[in-house]
């Protein structure tokens, strides 16, 4: 399931030579490992013999495992057995980073908490992904939706009186990113001190960071931020329009220069000359009558024609795109933003599809896919042999 290797002329990825052992499931912890793996680390996913339950999710969870576990190796062990415990401790002794996102009691009961492992390996960096950082809430069970509700994000996303979670696992994903950033900082610190440390990332604090701009708006102005659907926009034209054939398109005209271009492009000379619409702030105040007028005038035009005019004049616009449409997006395909993987599990096992790469470029290239998401235990024999186990011992451990 390994993919073709990058060109030999390319510089090694930044974390080549770093070994990460992860005990993770769902999204937050696996995201941290995916980032480090994409950037070159050897990431070993330790799974129970039955496999990470995320492999078996359906519905909205069906994409979790194949997205967040590429570029990793799978080692399947029974951590409740003495043999499995010994094997994983041998592995951790060779690791730079351990990453986990289970309840504290889970790792403590297995003897895999930070205080236990730093005795084994003082250089170890231990990344914990939790619901809350230490404090009054840390005993609570958190989910992305839980912290969106209690952290102000659902309030800001929905209409007044109708809180609505964001349409992606934003806190899980971003929390994993902060876990990876913390691991990177700890690696840099280890270069100076020779010692590892514990890194903690949490869903709730991540969510608070996401709404911090609205918190600061209140701190600066004394005015509470309104939910996004009912906010007073700072821009006069910044909205979704339903146009010819019922198609929808987002259009933005956010400066006086853009307003002049917009009016010229569409032949709205009367609006350009209207003193009531002279500045952006004037147009914001005039939205109550201006927007219905613009909707009426643009409504007879097709979305393709409007897109072409906006693009020609450098005006901001966007089609209303469904996630599945992005698998065929011309820009993503042309720029290498999608890469092939082979699905490891479920009805699609063995089928090739495309996955989304990290949204960054290093040395002119996107960090790519070196390994498809692993089959359960795909690398168990290889890794256990490296740790000194015989063929018969490996067979016993893998059953």
> What is the count of helical runs?
18
What percent strand?
A: 5-15%
Instruction: Name the CATH class of the largest domain.
Output: Alpha Beta
Mean pLDDT, all residues = 95
Q: Report the C-alpha radius of gyration, rounded.
A: 26 Å
**Count of folded domains:** 2
Coarse shape: elongated
Count of individual beta strands: 11
Question: Which key features would you list for this structure?
Answer:
399 residues, alpha/beta, Rossmann fold, formyl-coa transferase, domain 3, 2 domains, 6-stranded parallel beta sheet, 3-stranded antiparallel beta sheet, 18 helices
Task: Note down, in words, how this protein is organized.
The strands form 3 sheets. The protein has a 6-stranded parallel β-sheet with strand order 3-2-1-4-5-6, sandwiched between helices. Strands 7-8-9 form a 3-stranded antiparallel β-sheet. It has a two-stranded antiparallel ribbon with strand order 10-11. The two termini are 23 Å apart. α1 (28-38) packs across α8 and α8 (170-193) crosses α9 (203-210). With 399 residues, the chain is an alpha/beta fold. The protein contains 18 helices and 11 strands. It has helices spanning 28-38, 64-68, 82-92, 104-109, 114-120, 144-150, 153-157, 170-193, 203-210, 212-221, 256-266, 269-273, 280-285, 287-299, 303-312, 330-335, 380-386, 391-397; strands at 19-23, 42-47, 72-76, 97-100, 125-130, 198-202, 237-242, 248-253, 317-319, 338-342, 352-356.
